[in-house]
UniProtKB/TrEMBL annotation:
GO terms for cellular component: membrane. It comes from uncultured bacterium A1Q1_fos_1815. This is Putative Rhomboid family protein. It holds the Pfam family DUF6576. SUPFAM superfamilies: Rhomboid-like (SSF144091). Residues 252-281 are annotated as: Disordered. Keywords: Membrane, Transmembrane, Transmembrane helix. PANTHER family: PEPTIDASE S54 RHOMBOID DOMAIN-CONTAINING PROTEIN, RHOMBOID-RELATED PROTEIN. Residues 262-281 have a biased composition (Basic and acidic residues). Residues 240-273 form the DUF6576 domain. GO terms for molecular function: serine-type endopeptidase activity. The lineage of its organism: Bacteria, environmental samples. Coiled coil: none annotated. It is found in: Membrane.
Length: 281
């Protein structure tokens, strides 16, 4: 029985994956950095907003290779004229991102997030360079769309409360997320292409079983030079599954903070093993 088949993963979000605040979480620090930069910009240059202007990605940067670092920094700048630009991005990241971070681990989550930012910025810059349009893009929405789509793909049957009152399955939220961007007016000031790049990247990452950790690449490189010998130990597999069942029940009943460090590491190893088997089958 796979993790996705257990009842409290299919019908409702387990308490261990509910949004919470922790200084051990990458999401907590991403929110702190985004809010800090927003406040610094308002305090340092309330009229000209030099900090935001410095971080934002400009269409003219395609002609300035030494400015391509902005394909990353634009994701940490938000409109100083609309605080809800920052608020909604950080709320979406906090609400759905914690489950994704718990699933992939904080460092892999950070890699996913930053790659989504850069891909969105690079795609936006290429489109504007090709079309000759001018403009500026800023905000974490592309990366947040990526995180939200990863949540939806991993937990499609979890019930989400839209606006806190409308129960909606995650897969349907995913339909709205994609459709809403596809039908958006291209003349609006919303970076639709950045959103869609984030969504597409999440789908590619999920369905191809990607992983950006160095350990994964080392093992793949070594595998090219070693004969592939698969040893299946049904007794060990049965014990691992029983232990995973016990830990999931514990997390469901007592919350994720009840897990010890060794138990967390076991769950990460077991999840990686399942994903690897799916890729090999």
């Amino acid at each position: 029985m796979g993790i996705q088949d257990r009842d409290y993963y299919t019908n409702d979000a387990p308490r261990g994956l509910a949004p919470s605040w922790s200084n051990r979480s990458v999401i907590s620090w991403l929110i702190i950095i985004n809010v800090a930069l927003y406040v610094i910009d308002i305090l340092v240059s309330p009229r000209t907003h030099d900090v935001t202007e410095f971080l934002a990605l400009h269409s003219s940067d395609s002609n300035l290779p030494w400015m391509l670092w902005r394909t990353l920094t634009y994701g940490f700048a938000h409109s100083p004229y609309n605080v809800f630009h920052l608020f909604w991005n950080m709320l979406g990241l906090w609400m759905l991102g914690r489950a994704v971070e718990e699933l992939y681990g904080k460092w892999e989550f950070l890699r996913i997030y930053l790659v989504a930012v850069v891909l969105g910025g690079a795609g936006w810059l290429l489109r504007h360079s090709w079309s000759g349009e001018t403009g500026v893009v800023l905000g974490a929405s592309g990366a947040v769309c990526c995180v939200e789509m990863l949540f939806i793909l991993n937990f499609p049957r979890v019930i989400l409360m839209i606006w806190g009152v409308i129960p909606t399955p995650a897969w349907l939220v995913g339909v709205f997320l994609v459709a809403g961007n596809l039908i958006q007016d291209s003349r609006s000031n919303i970076a639709i292409d950045v959103h869609l790049i984030g969504i597409a990247f999440a789908a590619v990452y999920f369905y191809l079983g990607l992983h950006f950790g160095l350990d994964r690449w080392r093992s793949r490189w070594k595998g090219l030079w070693r004969p592939k010998l698969k040893v299946h130990d049904p007794i060990s597999d049965s014990r691992d599954e029983e232990e995973m069942d016990r830990l999931l029940k514990k997390m469901h009943d007592q919350g994720q903070d009840s897990l010890t460090s060794s138990e967390r590491k076991f769950m990460e190893r077991y999840s990686r093993k399942l994903r690897q088997r799916r890729q090999e089958s």
